[in-house]
Design brief:
10 helices, alpha/beta, two-stranded antiparallel ribbon
Length: 338
């Protein structure tokens, strides 16, 4: 595939059970975030939050393709990535509510989700900061010979951050097993990425500077994402070095819960709403012969799972103040190096 190539048409044969798994994943992510959004208005979610409604196909396609011991690094818009890697839904919702039974004990909240047990290595609030960390984890995997791959998700705005270029360069020089995934939703917070970037594809068009392919795909097509992810993971795992993928997608809402998103043209928003990845994939499954009742059952099960998770979160205790200063201090010594 040449630089700037469109990966959307390059598909692998995907078994039906894998397709249904991805459909369930997208529904879980969508219904989870819709519920979280409702809980905002009840005053139960503490702090700000950034939803990925509309971007579920990227998280689902990669999560379905990754090995269980691969590592995910994501941004503060990380609910879906953390959930779909296998974090317990009830504990994840409890974290959003700041409860002691949350995956981080209520300390992390929406923007700092971590569950190392399932390879969800954290959501990072500082733009671009996690790219060198993902490269470091890939170096560790390479040195240990574990066969693990780091997959790091970031927004289009991070492509103008120094850490993006530093991480790409080092990963290329050391041929690290890391896949860089730009979730290009066209906006850096409130600013169109095209207004402040010299190239039309902020990630893919810069790949050649580091000797990499610039892979572009339709981030709303979960099958294209899965196929591209599968190939990229195999490439990195086999020692072929890093891959850089730009997934074109769109967030349905504003940057955060405080942002109505009115700076976006109405016709643009409607165009992307019409390309919603979930109904589009359902239509494709039905056209391929999957019974509507089967898909209805998956939707009902996802809805029930989210409701159960919400009850777990609501009933969870608030954190014990005695835990406030635990897990936050290092003595500055060198013992950790050993």
């Amino acid at each position: 595939m040449t630089a700037g190539a469109d990966a959307s048409a390059d598909t692998v044969s995907i078994p039906l059970d894998k397709k249904l798994e991805m459909y369930r994943m997208m529904l879980d992510a969508r219904l989870f975030e819709e519920k979280a959004h409702k809980l905002f208005f009840e005053g139960l979610v503490k702090g700000t939050s950034h939803l990925a409604l509309g971007q579920e196909a990227v998280a689902a396609g990669f999560a379905a393709a990754m090995r269980s011991d691969d590592l995910t690094f994501c941004t503060y818009r990380g609910h879906t990535h953390t959930l779909l890697r296998g974090a317990d839904m009830g504990a994840l919702m409890a974290e959003l509510l700041g409860r002691g039974n949350g995956i981080c004990g209520g300390k992390g909240g929406s923007m700092h989700l971590t569950d190392v047990s399932v390879g969800a290595m954290g959501s990072y609030a500082i733009v671009g900061a996690h790219l060198p960390i993902a490269a470091g984890a890939a170096w560790a995997a390479q040195a240990r010979g574990t066969g693990q791959v780091s997959v790091v998700f970031f927004g289009d705005g991070a492509t103008n951050i120094g850490a993006f270029h530093e991480a790409l360069n080092l990963a290329a020089v050391w041929s690290l097993p890391v896949v860089f995934v730009c979730e290009n939703n066209l906006y850096m917070e409130y600013t169109p990425i095209g207004a402040v970037t010299a190239v039309p594809n902020p990630a893919a068009d810069r790949a050649g500077a580091y000797g990499l392919e610039g892979i572009i795909l339709d981030g709303n097509d979960v099958e294209a994402v899965y196929s591209t992810a599968t190939a990229a993971l195999e490439h990195a795992r086999a020692g072929g070095g890093p891959q850089l993928i730009e997934a074109k997608t769109y967030r349905h809402g504003g940057h955060s819960r405080a942002d109505p998103g009115t700076y976006r043209p109405d016709e643009e928003v409607q165009e992307w709403l019409d390309r919603d990845p979930i109904p589009a994939f359902r239509a494709r499954l039905e056209a391929a012969g999957v019974a509507a009742e089967t898909l209805d059952t998956i939707e009902a099960e996802s809805d029930a799972a989210v409701e159960a998770a919400t009850e777990v979160a609501r009933s969870g205790p608030f954190p014990d103040p005695a835990n406030l200063e635990t897990q936050v201090w290092a003595d500055g010594g060198s013992s950790w190096r050993n």
